[in-house]
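Quick review question:
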């Protein structure tokens, strides 16, 4: 079963067009129901336990695992209730209650001082947050614990009542509590579980109130975040000023137990949509004005949900906003930037979206209404149309029953344009300097006419932008500059090749600052351009990174070493950018979600080529200052391979990875090939592996075996 789960492609259902992503998997995991449901459950018990283990283990990645397991069990529960010989079960019966209780009682992870255990505990809490919706009764769970005597008034005896100021003490002492006390305290319940919340409060804290008491730390954190959200929606509010004040609150939010993080994010969804009419209602004359959420509000909500691992709430918020916005077209224009935030989430968590056929169709139709034209007229429309095409290819129902979105005209001659990437471009000039300094007030049509009439003007524009960004561009104006660049690139296709040329050799654009600080600024700017499809991640690899790696031995420090920093920025920034203030990271999140999705969509063997060249270059003796040793090929390789998504991508086709064209070719030594395979298979390793080939291969086999049996 584990092999079936590991080899299944959750990113697309195209491999079997007659099934959805989960339907095809269901038929492989569960057989037909051939016995009465009580007897069938005995056969299903080890499968259910195995699914739970797969969903929570730290040796697997992917936020889709919890939703996949919940959907598989839901389908199996329906099949057991409806089919099979013998007496039918009651429709409201929780078929898997006893099996899931046994899993919690015997093998589910607990919260300890070990980081791996904590990761698995958080995964388990999220999984049961899904199961508690229709397959696991929290009420029955409490009753069984009471009958077994597993719920002493432990917390009351420890004098850790939740209304105390020092709630952090409870968080610190969680690992000392018995298994089921941890679960009862941590299993996520929403405000719809009022009776369950009441029972939990009474059992653990002796409270008899209608509503469960909430810790002071929870209340303070929630109120601060709610105030920040409301301020971000104010007309005269400066987003950066508001977000900069949240650093300490975000840190407090991070240390809250998973259950309280989820409660906060679910309750914060209401403040950002109070003035948007619910779906299916029409605003009436004289009613309250429609106030749309701002991009900053939406980004902050997504930011908090990602910190809590609450993917379900992210998808729910996305669907709710799209549903509400659909009926407002006649009354108000919804900024496309909000849809860009939404599509960034849907793109990153597409494996979760594809689980639901209905949700996938809804998203496709909602985005279709935004891009009805054959050719997009804005950069945002371009991004939305590209994502619609990706979604159409990934969903079997859409690809079988819906017409494929028209390919945008801007991509019709992509190969021809990129083959003509200029080796040299015109340097920066003062022509566009004022426009770049104040991008929000630029007349885009006038600038577009200049760039459209003269390709040299386009080259000069790109060069001027690169020089300004590397020279310390105002970070508050950077989003507007990125939009200006994206709009002009959408209207003039040839700029795609100019960007690649400028990124490959920024020095040709003009005089750059001394030192290496500009490498970071350029890398973050490139990631922002990727968000708007100004070029693809593969273009950067093929036209910038690979040529640098092939000619690495010819360079002397610091020639083209900005490419090494670019690699680190592109392939090691998993969640959030390394920024000085929380406002930078929150504002930039959509770009990094797009980047994360683009990395996972790379073809594994193309990506492996880059890794192979890195390890080949690790033997090249190049003088690099001690302060920049992190840019040496082996250091860059180790940082990239330490990311959890790398083995998931590379090991998706292990037989090709070790073929004669890749790790078994003559470009790298057998030892380096073994070393690279070790780094890919063991991403969390911080120590250099042994140089002894026998020991090295043994370690690889050991890690691989652990991954199989866990």
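Suggested answer, residue by residue:
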């Amino acid at each position: 079963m584990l092999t079936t789960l590991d080899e299944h492609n959750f990113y697309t259902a195209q491999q079997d067009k007659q099934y959805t992503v989960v339907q095809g998997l269901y038929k492989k995991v569960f057989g037909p129901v051939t016995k009465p449901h009580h007897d069938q459950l005995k056969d299903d018990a080890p499968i259910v336990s195995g699914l739970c283990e797969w969903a929570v283990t730290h040796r697997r990645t992917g936020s889709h695992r919890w939703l996949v397991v919940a959907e598989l069990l839901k389908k199996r529960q329906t099949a057991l209730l409806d089919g099979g010989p013998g007496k039918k079960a009651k429709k409201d019966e929780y078929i898997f209650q006893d099996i899931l209780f046994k899993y919690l009682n015997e093998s589910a992870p607990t919260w300890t001082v070990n980081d791996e255990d904590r990761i698995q505990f958080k995964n388990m809490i999220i999984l049961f947050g899904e199961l508690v919706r229709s397959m696991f009764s929290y009420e029955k769970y409490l009753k069984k614990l009471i009958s077994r005597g597993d719920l002493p008034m432990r917390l009351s005896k420890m004098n850790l009542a939740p209304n105390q100021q020092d709630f952090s003490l409870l968080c610190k002492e969680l690992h000392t509590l018995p298994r089921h006390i941890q679960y009862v305290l941590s299993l996520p319940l929403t405000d719809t579980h009022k009776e369950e919340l009441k029972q939990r409060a009474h059992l653990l804290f002796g409270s008899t109130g209608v509503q469960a008491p909430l810790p002071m730390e929870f209340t303070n954190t929630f109120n601060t975040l709610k105030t920040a959200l409301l301020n971000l929606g104010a007309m005269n509010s400066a987003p950066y000023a508001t977000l900069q004040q949240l650093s300490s609150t975000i840190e407090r939010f991070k240390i809250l137990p998973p259950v309280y993080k989820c409660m906060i994010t679910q309750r914060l969804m209401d403040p950002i949509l109070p003035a948007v009419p619910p779906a299916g209602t029409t605003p009436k004359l004289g009613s309250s004005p429609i106030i749309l959420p701002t991009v900053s509000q939406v980004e902050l909500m997504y930011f908090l949900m990602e910190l809590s691992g609450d993917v379900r709430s992210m998808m729910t918020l996305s669907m709710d906003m799209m549903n509400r916005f659909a009926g407002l077209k006649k009354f108000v224009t919804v900024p496309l930037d909000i849809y860009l935030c939404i599509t960034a989430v849907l793109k990153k968590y597409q494996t979760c979206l594809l689980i639901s056929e209905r949700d996938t169709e809804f998203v496709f139709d909602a985005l279709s209404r935004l891009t009805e034209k054959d050719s997009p007229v804005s950069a945002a429309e371009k991004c939305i149309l590209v994502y619609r095409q990706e979604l159409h290819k990934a969903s079997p129902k859409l690809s079988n029953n819906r017409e494929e979105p028209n390919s945008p005209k801007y991509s019709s001659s992509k190969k021809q344009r990129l083959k003509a990437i200029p080796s040299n471009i015109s340097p920066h000039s003062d022509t566009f300097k004022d426009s770049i300094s104040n991008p929000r007030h630029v007349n885009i049509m006038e600038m577009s006419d200049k760039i459209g009439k003269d390709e040299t003007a386009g080259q000069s524009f790109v060069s001027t932008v690169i020089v300004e960004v590397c020279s310390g561009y105002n970070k508050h104006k950077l989003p507007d500059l990125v939009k200006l660049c994206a709009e002009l690139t959408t209207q003039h296709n040839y700029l795609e090749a100019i960007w690649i040329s400028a990124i490959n050799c920024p020095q040709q654009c003009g005089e750059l600052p001394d030192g290496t600080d500009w490498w970071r600024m350029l890398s973050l700017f490139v990631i922002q351009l990727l968000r708007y499809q100004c070029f693809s991640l593969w273009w950067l690899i093929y036209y910038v990174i690979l040529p640098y790696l092939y000619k690495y031995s010819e360079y002397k420090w610091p020639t083209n070493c900005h490419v090494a920093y670019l690699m680190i920025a592109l392939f090691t920034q998993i969640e959030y950018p390394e920024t000085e203030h929380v406002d930078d990271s929150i504002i930039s999140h959509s770009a990094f979600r797009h980047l994360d999705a683009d990395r996972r969509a790379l073809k594994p063997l193309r990506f492996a080529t880059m890794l192979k060249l890195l390890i080949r270059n690790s033997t090249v003796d190049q003088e690099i200052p001690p302060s920049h040793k992190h840019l040496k090929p082996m250091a860059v390789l180790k940082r990239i391979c330490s990311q959890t998504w790398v083995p998931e991508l590379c090991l998706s086709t292990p037989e090709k990875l070790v073929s004669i064209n890749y790790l078994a070719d003559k470009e790298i030594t057998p030892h380096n090939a073994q070393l690279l395979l070790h780094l890919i298979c063991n991403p969390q390793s911080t120590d250099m592996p042994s140089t002894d080939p026998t020991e090295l291969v043994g370690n690889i086999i050991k890690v691989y075996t652990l991954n199989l049996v866990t």
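Why it works: The radius of gyration is 27 Å. Confidence is low (pLDDT under 50) at residues 156-168, 409-413, 574-584, 704-710.
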